[in-house]
Amino acid sequence: MIEAYLDFVKNYPLLSSAVQIGILGTMGELLAVRIRMKKWYFFGPGPMRLLLKAVIWAFLGVTFKYAFTGFFAYMDAIILKGWWFNLEKGSFFYALSVSIFANIIYGPVFVTFHRFTDNKIEGKEMDWESLQKAWWSLVWFWIPAMTTVFILPPHLRIGLLSLWNIVLGAMLGYFAVKAQKN
Q1: Which pTM was predicted?
Q2: What is the mean pLDDT of residues 115-128?
Q3: How many other CB atoms are there within 10 angstroms of residue 54's CB atom?
Q4: pLDDT at position 180, please?
Q5: Which of 56, 34, 27 has its CA nearest to residue 122?
Q6: Given this model, what pLDDT does residue 46 score?
């Protein structure tokens, strides 16, 4: 089973990114709602909204794969130019640096696009205060999480990122319940 997974992610990097993020990103979102509402909620009547959310997550999975590749090249370029610390590839600080740049440059675009599409699917208005809180998750959650992702070999990164989506979903659900009690 593990061999089949590894073959899939190595031989079909874009498709595997779409599948992994499409499934586990959607599951993380469902988990957050489940914890907050104390029941399963699939974003409205019928399966169409849930399917649209999974499709958006799958699309984002492909953009993650491109962004990861691009930000590693970006890091190499700014190190070569002398604009960043001379860090050893594969080191913790190299992974941390890639994570910081990815989350401050790509992260806000991703979060805004994702929030916009979620609101369109659910028929809601954009909640700018909530969006700002989501941007902060880039700092307190995604920079550390992505550092662990970027230490891994390229073919394993999207898999761990997908699992981090589940973790974040659980955390956001918990925070929402705690905020409701206060």
Answers
A1: 0.92
A2: 93
A3: 20
A4: 86
A5: 56
A6: 73
What are the CA-CA distances from residue 39 to residues 20, 147, 150, 173 (Å)?
Answer: 24, 33, 35, 12
Q: How far apart are CA 45 and CA 28, in angstroms?
A: 20
* Amino acid (1-letter code) at residue 33: V
Structure tokens at 153: 């070999």
pLDDT digits (tens, 9 = 90+) for 145-180: 999 999 999 999 999 999 999 999 999 999 989 988
Q: Which of 64, 75, 88, 70 is nearest to 145 (CA)?
A: 64
CA nearest to 136, candidates 175, 96, 93, 181: 175
Tokens matching residue 69: 């590749």
